[in-house]
Amino acid sequence: MISNDANKQLQRLASFYTTYVLPYVKRRSPQTFIAAAIAAFFSYQVYNFVQVPRKLRHIPAVPFWAYMKSALSEEGIDLRTRNIILPVLENSPNGMYLRPNRFGWCVGVAGPSAMKTLLLRKDFEKHRGIALQPEALFSKFLGTQNIVTLNGSVWKKHRMIANPAFHRSMPVKLFGRLCEKMMTQFEKEGDGIDSVDIPMFLQRFTLDVIGLAAFGYDFEALGDPKNAKVDTYNTIMDGLRNPIYFFFPILEKRFLWALPKRRAVHNRMEDMNQIFYSIIENKRQTLENMKGLAEDAEKDLLTLMLEANADSKEAGDRLSDSELRDDLAIFFLAGHDTTSNALSFALYHLAANPQIQEKARKEVIDILGDGDDVVYPTASQCSDMKYVYMVMKETLRLEPPAQNTTLRENKEDFELAGTFIPKGTSVSADIYVMHHNPSVWKDPEVFIPERFAPDGESESKAGSGLSWVPFGNGARQCIGMNFSLAEQKVLLSMMLRKFTWTLADNSINKDGIVLGGGTGIISPKDLHLKLTKRF
Ligand code: HEM
User: In this prediction, does ipTM exceed 0.90?
Assistant: First the structure.
């Protein structure tokens, strides 16, 4: 049975075809007939895509066309949330709603209690999406055997091998060295420190960090941003951000032959794979030559993973080269854009709130001392930066770089915070939406680091579920969280010690941060800052 509404639409579609399309194509050539058949096929696909499945109609849904128009345009998730999603959430007592996704309609979770159940219980597994769409650029880049999308014992194997690498002391010296390099670069490029293109520099900084700290591989993005390695990487990243292919993977599956620009991006995957496999091979060689000579603290993540791999007693517990390659791709994707955007947003909020910037600077100077020398903070000094950490947490609340987690799927019918979720539904933890949900956070649009002080608003919510999840939570929580937090603390403290800053003259962000479009990762649009040296 289909609903009256859906039935009417179906009848209208059928009558349009019999009245207009069929008589027309009967008078035309076979090519016209084929074109009409393709059009009919697509109309049917669109029809199926637009309709909310009957089994999900008890959950409030966003209006399809308004949502898609926003998602496919340059509009940021802030406008989509405010204008389209939050009005729907007003009719949802537990913060759950429906929105379109590349696999059809999915349940978005934006309430603390449902979030806790979704992320902590084992009833929801990662969606098999990536394995279902091997032709997509996304799947070609990440591979189908990576730590983020796998489930069960195979995921455990990946996590066991990667865990030791992420649970040792963080390479803060390397973060400091690259931050110093970035700060000297400000003066050499563009308009100097009067108008610094912050996201562009931070992208280069975090790419060099992830390359060197994770794999001992130097992209040289800070020194030479136009080199071939950076170009290959950036071409693929730009391709991954295109929302058209995100929502319509069928274009890559069936029509890549007719899309020369997209095909050219796909072809660059060969260069990217060459980079990945040469990283693994070189690392193996170096390990062989250095046997036992390197100190643990000096080792990068890949070295530690290769060692853990070699130490695994059972062959079945080890990762193959192609599994290692897929994890490498994830570390790049998950560890580069996310941290660079988190830092851009933190610098923006400090520019927009000079008193908070001053308070954070005072804390840093109390810990690191003051002067025109360059100081790299140690790990223990980083842990003393309580207020800077509150600034970072509030930034991650307002602009969590990952808008949502990867999709989950329930293997059996399930009741999530009182809402029935039929077996096989796609479910997403909608981090951004929950962090801006006024029934979860008071004055959610206002930047207030004190929310994260002891006894602050955040602590008072502990009993009601999970209301702050920029890194996810539970067994699948971000493995790189501490790595990223240390990287952020080093950069923010070094910037605070060396400069004061405001928004650049004529900034488009004077009335609030403007977000870029696209799906997945949240980024700022055209963020330039005016820096002033303190000495
Ligand atoms: C501000 C920075 C970062 C943010 C906001 C972030 C966010 C997230 C989120 C939300 C998840 C959970 C995904 C899910 O449940 O589906 C996740 C998982 C993951 N992240 Fe991050 N991440 C960041 C930095 C990093 C870094 C630096 C790395 C590695 C170098 C990394 C590697 C991973 C990996 C491997 C997973 C999958 C873990 C698993 O499933 O076992 N992330 N991240």
Answer: yes
